[in-house]
Amino acid sequence: LTTVYSANSRFSRDEVVVKLLKPNLLVDEKTARRFIKRAEQSVKLIHPNIARTFAVLTAKRGEEPYLIPCLVTEKLNGPNLKQMLIERQRMAPYLVAINIIDVCSALQYALSEGVAHHDLKPSNIYFSIQAKGMVAKVVDIGLAEWLFRNLEWLAPPLPDGRTASIYGDPS
User: Fold this and answer.
1) Better-predicted residue by pLDDT, 52 or 25
2) DSSP letters spanning 74-103
3) pLDDT exceeds 70 at position 131
4) pTM above 0.85?
């Protein structure tokens, strides 16, 4: 869904991640504006187990007819859960319990702010190495929901010539 770049903040000198939404996901300028509005909600989510979104910006790329939304987010210095499970195969039960509590805390907070994840999977749970140890952090809260509900993903034509649209919708 995004192209990811590593960058340094001019203000804090911290490393950040810049996620540029892939242009093929944006049908028109109205769609881009709606995505930006939804992404700006993630800036307000401040919780120790949610990866921070610092800013929502727009960028002009090549001959694209409209601005491409991009997010500036916290750079996490550890692996995601998918990577850990591939490397280790298992986690110690106490680590599983601690991380489940952290993830549930993040999701409960986001829901209390009116934002649902809708795409929680091992690759969206990262581990940040901090002074107090490894902390689970959820990434991309609320963005997948918006994409799946508001963007029409056009599939290739069906064998009989009809076109199909694919939507991800939990209902």
Assistant:
1) 52
2) EPP-S-BHHHHHHHHS---HHHHHHHHHHH
3) yes
4) no
